[in-house]
Structure formats: C-alpha cells, structure tokens
Design a protein that fits this description.
Shape: globular
Strand order of the largest sheet: 1-2-3-4-5-6-7-8
Number of domains: 1
Helix content: 40-55%
Largest sheet: 8 strands, parallel, barrel
Order of helices and strands: EHEHEHEHEHHEEHEHHHHHEE
Radius of gyration: 18 Å
CATH class: Alpha Beta
Distance between the termini: 33 Å
Oligomer: single chain
CATH superfamily: Aldolase class I
Low-confidence stretches: none
CATH architecture: Alpha-Beta Barrel
Structural class: alpha/beta
Length: 292
C-alpha cells in the first residue's frame, strides 16, 4: 500500500534530551535529529511516548515541536505528538502544531477514559477539525486500556484528515483501506514492510538506524537483519521506555540526559545489559563509542 502522506518509511520516535537539571536540552535535541537523519531516519515523531510527552508542560511540548520544524535536517519530516485523553486539549495541541508547520500529527486513543466506539469516533472527528494536515491514529491498547478494532479503524478512516495509523497491537496488524499503516513496535517493522505498509514509528532506530534502513533497502535480507536485531529491541524495552534508549544514547556520546519521574534511570544491571548489546553490535569498543 503506497504512502499517501509521504512522511517516509523510518520515523524515529525521538527522545527528549534533558540537561543535568532535567530541563529540555534544545541543543542536544537538534544535534540528535541531525545524527539520526544521517543514520536511516526519514523523519521524527516529536513529543510521543518515547519523547516523555506526558511529563512535559504544554509550553515545553509545543516549543519542542516548533524547534523540530525550524531545525529539521533537510528532507526530513516532522510528526507532532498531539494526543490527549481530553478532546479539547488534543484539538488545541493539534491546532497549534499545525500552525507551527508539522507535516502530520499523531493522536493516541484517549487513555484512562476508555470511551465507547461512538465516543472514540466523536473524539477523532473533533480533533481532525483542528488541522488540515494528515493525522495518524495511535493504537496502543496495553498502555491506554482501549483498542481500535480493524472494523472501527476502517470507519475512522472515513474522517477527513485521518490518513494513517500507528498500530501497536501486533495481533491486529493489517492493512486498512484508506489508512497508511505504520508499525508501532520495532518487532513488527519487518512484517509491516512485508505486507506493504508505509513504514514504522520506531525506537531502535536511535541506535541501529543504519541496519533498519537496510531492512527497507534489502528486502531479500530483511528477515535475517530483523532476526539479528531482536536483542536490541528486547534490551531497549526491558524496562519503562525511554530509560534504556536514553542510556544507550548516553553511552554513545549523544547527550540524551536523564528521565523525568515517574520514569527512573537505568539500574547498574540494566546499564550493563545495554552496554553489552551495543558492544555486540559493534557500536561500542571497550566502552568507547565507535565513530560513525
């Protein structure tokens, strides 16, 4: 299924770097965008789950989206994470991100509220009115407590500007007429590509973006590459995200900084496992990042 949005195939759900006082580190964020663009990323989802959006103020959240649009590497796309379980708030963030010049927005299902299918449809109808840009739905039931069934996805696809879905329910990963399909988990990226999906909104691309690009460019080798990266996927998500992703980036000298509560920093044991997997993939040599 060809992409109608042209957002790219590898969209990295970029972390939000913090400084020593856990303030947003804008310089490190821009540097990370440019690094990732050189290593496989076609674009970035800014202020998503991996970006710790739930711990950002609206000022920080919208400021980071604005910075991403302004400082994006040439040829890359910016998808603003603008979801909320408050319909008014989601519409407000979506409108502001649209005004800032994003290429699309990502809107998670209303967590905790657990609305009915009708409530979910009304929610997305209202949010979609706030933008003239493509909107990707985000289905991640293990975090939100609500699932968008394939049948309901097909219905939501009829809403103007609803053009894609980030599908993190692996059991229901399938093409839906009218929606671009993006893998919501690194582990389903290869399968999404195989079935003709648009790509993936990924986390492991922070550290193995070149290998994930090979999965796009070398379909004959895709299954083998995917199998070789399973330890990376598992390690980055062995505890609450983005704990281990930030730990990996810091080991690689990419200044991700710490995490904000209620997420906590990697333990010594977790950090050792992150270091081991980076060394296994040739990204660290004797504790030193290998120049790319």
């Amino acid at each position: 299924m060809p992409s109608a949005m042209n957002l790219g195939v590898i969209l990295t759900a970029i972390v939000t770097p913090f400084d020593a006082e856990l303030r947003v580190n804008e310089e490190a964020f821009v540097a990370l965008m440019h690094h990732l663009a050189k290593h496989g990323s076609d674009g970035f989802v800014v202020c998503g789950t991996t970006g710790e959006a739930s711990t950002l103020t609206d000022e920080e959240h919208l400021g980071l989206i604005e910075l991403a649009v302004k400082e994006r590497p040439p040829g890359t796309t910016i998808v603003g994470g603008t979801g909320s379980n408050n319909t008014w708030h989601a519409a407000h963030l979506t409108q502001r991100a649209t005004e800032m010049g994003v290429d699309a927005t990502l809107s998670v299902t209303p967590y905790y509220n657990r609305p009915s299918p009708l409530g979910l449809k009304r929610h997305y109808e209202e949010v979609a009115k706030a933008t003239d840009k493509p909107m990707l739905l985000y289905n991640i039931p293990h975090r939100t407590g609500i699932n968008i069934s394939p049948e309901l996805l097909a219905e939501l696809a009829q809403i103007e500007h609803v053009d894609g879905v980030k599908q993190a329910n692996a059991k229901e990963l399938q093409l839906i007429d009218g929606l671009d399909l993006y893998a919501g988990d690194d582990g389903t990226f290869a399968r999404t590509l195989d079935m003709g999906g648009a790509g993936g909104i990924l986390v492991a691309s922070h550290v193995v973006g070149d290998e994930m690009r090979r999965m796009v460019n070398e379909p004959a080798n895709r299954a083998e590459i995917d199998a070789s990266l399973q330890d990376v996927y598992k390690t980055l998500f062995m505890t609450a995200s983005p704990t281990c992703t930030k730990a990996a980036l810091n080991l690689l000298g990419l200044r991700a900084g710490g995490v904000r509560l209620p997420i906590v920093a990697a333990t010594a044991e977790e950090l050792a496992q992150v270091r081991t997997v980076l060394e296994h993939h040739g990204l660290l040599s004797g504790g030193t990042a290998v120049a790319a």
